[in-house]
Input
Amino acid sequence: MTYNEMLGRRSEMLKRRIRDMIVRKNKNGLNAQEGHFLQHMIKELHQNEHELEAARK
Output
């Protein structure tokens, strides 16, 4: 597995986890810890996407 493939796979996993957390937030709401975790995953996704774009260049 190359570095680009690894970053792509990580992005897919983060997107799926974020989507699941957003669905959960819309249904039941999130407590403070879960909200913080969601924000952390979003930051991770942005960083990962930036690294992936830099690796492609």
User: Anything to note?
Assistant: The two ends are 18 Å apart (CA to CA). The first helix runs from residue 3 to 28. The mean pLDDT is 95. The CA atoms of residues 43 and 52 lie 14 Å apart.
